[in-house]
Write a structure and sequence with these properties.
The complex is a heterodimer of chains A (214) and B (247). Chain A is an alpha+beta fold and 214 residues long. Helices cover 52% and strands 17% of the residues of chain A. Chain A has six helices and six strands; from the N terminus they run H-H-H-E-H-E-E-E-H-H-E-E. The longest helix of chain A has 38 residues, at 37-74. Chain A is elongated, with a radius of gyration of 25 Å. By secondary structure, chain B is α+β, with helices and mostly antiparallel strands. Chain B has helices spanning 3-27, 43-82, 85-89, 95-106, 135-147, 192-200, 206-214; strands at 110-121, 152-155, 158-159, 166-169, 172-175, 178-180, 184-189, 218-229, 242-243. A five-stranded antiparallel beta sheet of chain B has the order 3-2-7-1-8. In chain B, a hairpin with a 2-residue loop joins strand 5 and strand 6. Chain B is elongated, with a radius of gyration of 28 Å. Chain B starts with a helix and ends with a strand. The interface between A and B is large, with 105 and 109 residues.
Chain lengths: 214, 247
């Protein structure tokens, strides 16, 4: 075969490959963005099962606390230590107190995009994070996230249920996969029995707004 | 038509076919299927599956409604006990006030003050990615509100607290694991002028502004002298974290 036939022949093979792959990509995108009604319902139901279990857990925990409070109120002893414990727990979640406990550390060895940081923090909250720090600074719900200030290495410490965090973060196509992109060396992920997250540097207040009687 | 041209065209066709064949071969599924399932190939089976999914869906929604009602009344009963004079009498110093302050900082009290109301809704007309409000859009707005000094925020009546996340499942937006339906109402307490100014700044939320003007998604902001952001309903108690003991 002459050389000037070989070039268009090879180009045609390449074009054929590209056309088929493009079609395949189109089909998979359509399946993701325009999933059929039963598929969407099944996904929705799976999430509903999860949130129903969470609501049941919340209700059980709240009922326990209610029972404890009743016991404190009705006992003859002082309620100071029990109420101090309640205050400590609220302060722990709202960032006024430093927290320690089991959790995971995620280190990303590159600069993060703003949307990546916002999505990452949102994901760990969704996985039940009880305290979060980015580069050793406490991240609260009201902390304005600015990826630009964290530089070329971002270390995220999350205290929470390690099994839930590990499964949720490391699932295929999950946030760790997304952040790793083509280079998995950019991410390191460790689980620890005890991690520390500092208290916030700012006083978590609701200055200006007033409480309403419950 | 020259013989040479015909030959080139034939080669081009053969080449295209070979390329398609390679691609198909690469994507081919194995001849032996693992995890075999019974295919739902009849219309009746499909319709049965759909109705069963819908029944489950309705049942789960009803369960959640009941559970949320129970949570609200349990929360109310706990609040009443915490604020009771019997408990206050058993506390020394200003522990009662400290408890109230800690609850307020955690998001367990209703808060009122000046602020803004935001209404977001999908654009009318044929559905496309640009016309739909996504969880990411809402996250961007919330991020901008905190950055401009918001004191408290609720989305569709769901107070944002330390454990809150804003997610999407299928076509539903979830806040605190509660389904929020469009139009989405966001209430933020803070300086109305500053909050409003931040959201309409063309350098912020650029994608949202573009879609509001090009495809007509609704993005309205109203300044208010008084607004109320409701307390969080649910368990806001750490399960594994402990206050750090300083040595």
């Amino acid at each position: 075969m002459k050389l000037h036939f070989l070039a268009p022949f090879s180009a045609a093979i390449g074009l054929g490959l590209l056309a088929a792959l493009q079609y395949q990509l189109h089909l998979s995108r359509a399946a993701t963005t325009g999933a059929s009604s039963p598929t969407l319902l099944a996904i929705d139901n799976a999430r509903l099962y999860q949130t129903t279990a969470k609501l049941r857990g919340d209700l059980a925990a709240l009922s326990n606390r209610h029972a404890e409070l009743e016991q404190i109120t009705n006992s003859s002893e002082t309620a100071d230590s029990a109420v101090q414990m309640i205050i400590q727990n609220y302060q722990l979640l709202s960032g006024a107190a430093a927290a320690s406990g089991p959790g995971v550390t995620l280190t990303i060895h590159r600069r993060l995009e703003q949307s990546e940081l916002v999505d990452l923090v949102n994901v760990v909250r969704g996985l039940g994070a009880e305290a979060i720090a980015v580069n050793n600074q406490r991240i609260l719900i009201s902390t304005p996230l600015d990826a630009g200030r964290y530089g070329d290495q971002v270390t995220v410490i999350v205290i929470g249920n390690t099994q839930t965090l590990t499964t949720g973060l490391r699932e295929a196509g999950g946030v760790v996969d997304e952040l790793a992109r083509a280079n998995s060396d950019q991410i390191s992920f460790t689980v620890a029995a005890t991690l520390s997250v500092p208290a916030t540097a700012n006083n978590p207040s609701t200055g200006g707004a007033t409480s309403q009687p419950g | 038509m020259s013989k040479q041209f015909k030959f080139s065209a034939l080669l081009l066709l053969v080449g295209l076919f070979v390329g398609l064949f390679f691609a198909a071969q690469l994507q081919a599924t194995p001849s032996r299927l693992l995890n075999l399932t019974i295919p739902l190939d009849s219309q009746q089976a499909k319709s049965l599956a759909q109705s069963s999914l819908e029944e489950t869906h309705q049942g789960l929604l009803l369960d959640q409604e009941t559970l949320r009602g129970q949570l609200r009344s349990e929360q109310q009963a706990t609040d009443t006990l915490e604020q009771s004079s019997t408990l206050a009498a058993k506390l020394s110093g200003n522990l009662g006030n400290q408890l109230e302050a800690a609850k307020r900082a955690a998001g367990l009290s209703d808060l009122s003050g000046p602020g803004i109301d935001i209404v977001l809704a999908d654009a009318r007309g044929q559905s496309s990615a640009d016309r739909v409000i996504t969880a990411a859009d809402i996250r961007d707005i919330i991020s901008a509100l905190w950055a401009s000094g918001a004191k408290a925020i609720a989305i569709g009546g769901e107070r944002l607290v330390e454990t809150s996340s804003i997610d999407a499942v299928a076509e539903t937006i979830l806040v605190n694991n509660t389904r929020i339906l469009p139009p989405f109402h966001i209430t933020a307490l803070g300086d109305p002028l500053v909050l409003h100014g931040q959201l309409v700044d063309p350098r912020q939320l650029t994608d949202l502004h573009r879609r509001a003007s090009s495809v007509g998604i609704q993005f309205d902001i109203f300044e208010r002298n008084t607004l109320t952001v409701p307390a969080y309903t649910g368990n806001l108690y750490p399960q594994v974290a402990k206050p750090e003991v300083r040595s």
